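User: Quick sanity check before I run a bigger batch. Here is a single chain. Can you write out its predicted 3D structure?
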Amino acid sequence: MIWNLGSINVDNFYHLTHLPAPGETIAATRFHQGLGGKGANMSVAAARAAARVAHLGAVGPDGKWAVERLLEYGVDTRHIATVGTATGHANINVDAGGENNIVIFPGANHAISEAMIGAALAEASPGDFLLMQNETCGQAYAAATAKTLGLRFAYAAAPFSAAAVQEVLHYIDLLVLNAVEAAQLVEATGRDITELPIDDVVITLGADGCKWVSNKQGTVERYPAHPVDVVDTTGAGDTFTGYLVAAIDRGLPMDQAIDLGMRAAALMVAREGTADVIPDLKEIQDHDFG
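Assistant: Done. Predicted structure follows.
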């Protein structure tokens, strides 16, 4: 079982010929809206990867549709609260080549209380996963509570904050971050990734695949990316992480879990959107990756 303390956002997509430079005003060629937030994306990905996942989060009075959408996608929504603050949202600029930049308003994601977190995790069992990102509050409390209850803790360190990672560093069993974030963490801690007190670190490398650093085994493994025509990179990292944690939770060894996550991410970047277009397990199993 996966307990995901995660954000729920309304994603506003603006399709542009190019990403705007500082001070530049450009017109969008197209607009659409959907369910997103790193937390919601990972919950949907984990559910579509055949894991049981409960989402811990909050929406505003305008967010009922987001909760219903998560439920439709197979996510346990009993621990999503409705608060007085507006639902979080993200304005996402996507250029013709599929690259993006994103501005996030946290809204209800920062109104999650320790009482909400504690009530949810009280239902967890030893060996379950706590999954978190850096778009909510209550992370230190959740991590400490989870470890006390015997849960495994997977942390996707985005949006990246070295201080946020360091606050929960000694609780983490699995850390997922990209190459830039990994370099920033090394600089902030003064320690190489191989010296961190974390059993497993997975560093995503974009088109170059990913790297698995097993500090428990003292090994480093690299995995090439699956070639794909990129349409939109938004949500690909979240899809990878959701599938990775779900696969580990279902008992797959790390190398197979990483490969499954990379296959899911490869299908994801060939699509336009976030949570609403995350591939399911059957799509991945049926797809010929060459």
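The CA atoms of residues 3 and 130 lie 5 Å apart.

User: Great, the batch can go ahead then.
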